[in-house]
Amino acid sequence: MSMIKTSSISRFPNTNDVGIGVSVGTFGELLQGILEENNLDFLVTLPIKNASYATFYSIPTLQEIVIVPRSKQKSKRLVEKIIQHYGLPPGGILEINSELPVGKGLASSSADLVAASRAVGDCFHINIEPSLLEWFLSSIEPTDGVMYEGSVSYYHKEVRLREYIGELPALCILSIDEGGTIDTVEFNKRTKPYTQEEKMEYSLLLQKITKAIRERDVHTIGAVSSRSAILNQKILPKKLLPEVMEINEKIGGLGTVVAHSGTSLGILLLKEEPDFYQKLELGYRWLSELNKEVHVYHT
Q1: What is residue 241's three-state secondary structure?
Q2: Closest of 93, 98, 31, 105 to residue 67, by C-alpha
Q3: In sequence order, what are the residues at sequence separation of 6 or more whose Cβ sits closer than 8 angstroms to the Cβ of residue 101?
Q4: Omega before 69 cis (within 30°)?
Q5: How far apart, in whole angstroms, are the C-alpha atoms of residue 217 and residue 169?
Q6: Numbers of helices and strands, H then E, in the chain
Q7: Domain limits of the chain?
Q8: 289 vs 39, 196, 279, CA distance in Å?
Q9: N or C: which end of the chain has fewer CB within 10 A?
């Protein structure tokens, strides 16, 4: 599969240097809320294999960054900031291709941005430390922690790592989309009316899922994810969540997972289980009765 389409740059024959960057997305979040200890919004990532791919062509004869497609203006702004910071040649073409749908809660924008930064770094042989990248990103938008390998707890509004948790087991997500799109920037401006008791529960849930991921306790991972989906109903309700939770129970899934600031929701399955394919087939069939289109994602 060709990840990068180069037809759009054929009119620039004097390309000197090229860099490529990749960043995975995340299927919503295993947990998202506000912590009682510091009153900060946080999330726990669920990285998936679907990704955004960026190619940066440094062209000294240009005096600006040309972005392809033109809709990826946030990535253009990030590249301009990086180039200015390092005093690099200002001209070039940034091309982005993504496997992640926009506005569905799969971190498409975050993945675009991280992939773009990696492409520039690859082009100029610069290692952009995550903390510096976060500083660049903080002036653009709240960002998921997709610049880190594995699952992390992350202060997305502050664009700051809370803690690296660890690698996830081999999971599969059977997913449906309720339609429409969510503007993450606008969503994160909303006040979230969590009670003090709910914030205390989020702190406890974070402790539980951190321990569960490190111990590969998949049932607790699923239980925490399901509870987070329920708590999020007061913020961005998923109308099909009760039905999806019922299907999860019927097929013996690990739990439900949602895009807390998106339109996607799904069922977690453990790929190492002997009856994984049977659960996958049953879940796919029953979810398709709720929504004609069912997507399958993998960690």
Answers
A1: helix
A2: 93
A3: 108, 177
A4: yes
A5: 9
A6: 8, 10
A7: 13-298
A8: 40, 39, 16
A9: N
Q: Which residues pair with 163 in a beta bridge?
A: 153
Residue 251 to residues 230, 278, 281, 287, Cα–Cα distance (Å): 19, 9, 10, 11
Cβ–Cβ contacts within 10 Å for residue 5, how many? 12
CA 30, CA 74: separation in Å to the nearest integer?
26
* Residues whose CB falls within 8 Å of the CB of residue 289, separated by 6 or more in sequence, listed in order: none
Question: What digits encode the pLDDT tens for the residues 82-118?
Answer: 999 999 999 999 999 999 999 999 999 999 999 999 9
Percent of the chain with pLDDT over 70: 95
pLDDT tens profile 171-202: 999 999 999 988 877 888 888 899 999 999 99
pLDDT at 8 over 50: no
* Composition of the chain by helix, strand, coil, percent to 5: 35, 25, 35
CATH topology of domain 13-298: Ribosomal Protein S5; domain 2 (3.30.230)
What pLDDT, on the 0 to 100 scale, is given for residue 292?
83
Contact 103, 39 (CB under 8 A): no
What does pTM read for this prediction? 0.91
Three-state secondary-structure class, residue 197: helix
